[in-house]
């Protein structure tokens, strides 16, 4: 199945069709629609989607309780679409019940654009955090525009559905402002906002898929999903390694060993501790590596940008990369794998998972230092976030009491426990695609 938003008449239609399509790919195919003018783009997109069942009702309160009943019986979130203003408020009783009973719902509420807020516009109220603590997730999208990358819509939907279906399950709310024209009338919009969605539009998979992994399934399921990404790394013809800020000697050695293992050009961040290569005291040792210290300067050349077309990029640690490198990597159609290890264990994913947000801070750290073996780490694994790939791999870091020993990319899952001697102070892995998609392997207590 292929999907294309390029045939949409205007930007409202583009945004609405992307939202509805992503819901469908995530398995949300039961829509409860309370018709209204402002929600027309969403309602039309849902009603014309071939895989979606729409139930229409003018009474939002009754419709919302119907959605609760469906979700409770099917154990799958129902989607509720309403217009703006009091229509949103009418959902509150059902939202409270869904929250208290752990029933998953996705609320898509249309809204007026910012210029109509607090300006006396009809059915215009403050819908930001309208349901307070009764929703597991809230996000207010910007008014539909071709000046914002469309992947923002997909990552928002993916994150919302993840929160709705993860323990504790419950309702989630996405606010969707639309400007006129609300109907399907032709209006010029720039297809450049769809940049980076080529792979998504050519597939039938969600932009980001969150796969729940419990301890009893780790050995059976997790390892079986590792082969595909491993194969991607092995097939890489033009790999590139980006190294972010390092704070310990162990971390620096880990990055060095990975660079040696891959034999890829390595781009060290200014905070990586690798610009001067003080740990590589012998010149013959440094000759085993390909360090590029000033890629940002080189990328100012058109010929360098045309030549350096990486097909796989591995990023270590949250990267404080400068604007030029960041823009370069976002424009590539590559597979992106990020590896994050820290002296602090990750607790939860607190961001939408947009590719741009990876460097900003959607990972929350604990202050406790821990040492875990493979079995304990397996018990901690709660989420594997997968994006447009069928499988995952683990790049394992083996440590001893005296520090880091070696790095391995596991090829045979059955031998994974032989590769890992212990993961000191919390090694967290993150995988993903550079078009905005990504995978995160979170170790959470």
From TrEMBL:
Record keywords: Magnesium, Manganese, Metal-binding, Thiamine pyrophosphate, Transferase
Domain of life per record: Eukaryota
Thiamine pyrophosphate enzyme N-terminal TPP-binding domain boundaries: 16-128
Keyword Transferase attached: yes
One GO-annotated biological process of the protein: menaquinone biosynthetic process
Residues annotated as transmembrane: none
InterPro entries in the cross-refs: MenaQ_synth_MenD, THDP-binding, Thiamin_PyroP_enz_TPP-bd_dom
Stored Gene3D superfamilies: 3.40.50.970, TPP-binding domain
GO molecular function, one term: thiamine pyrophosphate binding
Protein name: Thiamine pyrophosphate enzyme N-terminal TPP-binding domain-containing protein
Native organism: Quercus lobata (Valley oak)
Species lineage: Eukaryota, Viridiplantae, Streptophyta, Embryophyta, Tracheophyta
């Amino acid at each position: 199945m292929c999907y294309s938003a390029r045939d949409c008449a205007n930007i409202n239609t583009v945004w609405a069709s992307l939202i509805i399509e992503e819901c469908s790919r995530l398995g949300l195919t039961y829509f409860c629609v309370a018709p209204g003018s402002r929600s027309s783009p969403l309602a039309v997109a849902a009603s014309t989607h071939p895989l979606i069942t729409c139930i229409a009702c003018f009474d939002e309160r009754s419709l919302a309780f119907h959605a609760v009943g469906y979700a409770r019986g099917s154990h799958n979130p129902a989607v509720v679409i309403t217009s703006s203003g009091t229509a949103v408020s009418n959902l509150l009783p059902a939202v409270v019940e869904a929250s208290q009973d752990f029933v998953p719902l996705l609320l898509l509420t249309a809204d007026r654009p910012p210029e109509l807020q607090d300006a006396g516009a009809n059915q215009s109220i403050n819908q930001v955090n309208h349901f307070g603590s009764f929703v597991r997730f809230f996000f207010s999208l910007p008014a539909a525009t071709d000046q914002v990358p469309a992947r923002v819509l997909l990552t928002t939907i993916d994150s919302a559905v993840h929160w709705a279906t993860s323990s504790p399950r419950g309702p989630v709310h996405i606010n969707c402002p639309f400007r006129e024209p609300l109907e399907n009338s032709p209006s010029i919009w720039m297809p450049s906002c769809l940049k980076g969605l080529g792979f998504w539009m050519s597939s039938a998979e969600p932009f980001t898929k969150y796969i729940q992994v419990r301890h009893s399934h780790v050995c059976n399921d997790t390892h079986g999903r590792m082969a595909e990404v491993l194969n991607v790394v092995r097939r890489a013809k033009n790999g590139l390694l980006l190294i972010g800020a390092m704070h310990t000697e162990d971390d620096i050695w880990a990055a060095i060993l990975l660079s040696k293992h891959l034999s890829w050009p390595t781009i060290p961040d200014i905070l990586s501790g690798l610009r001067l290569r003080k740990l590589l005291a012998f010149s013959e040792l440094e000759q085993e590596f390909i360090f590029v210290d000033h890629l940002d300067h080189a990328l100012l050349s058109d010929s360098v940008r045309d030549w350096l077309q990486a097909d796989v990029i591995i990023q270590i640690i949250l990267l404080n990369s400068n604007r030029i490198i960041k823009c370069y990597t976002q424009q590539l159609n590559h597979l992106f794998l990020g590896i994050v290890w820290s002296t602090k264990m990750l607790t939860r994913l607190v961001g939408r998972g947009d590719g741009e947000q990876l460097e900003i801070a959607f990972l929350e750290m604990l202050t406790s230092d821990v040492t875990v073996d493979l079995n304990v780490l397996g018990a901690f694994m709660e989420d594997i976030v997968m994006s447009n790939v069928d499988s995952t791999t683990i790049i394992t870091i083996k440590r001893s009491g005296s520090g880091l020993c070696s790095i391995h990319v596991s090829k045979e899952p059955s031998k994974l426990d032989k590769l890992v001697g212990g993961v000191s102070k919390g090694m967290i892995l993150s995988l993903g695609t550079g078009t905005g998609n990504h995978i995160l392997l979170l170790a959470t207590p």
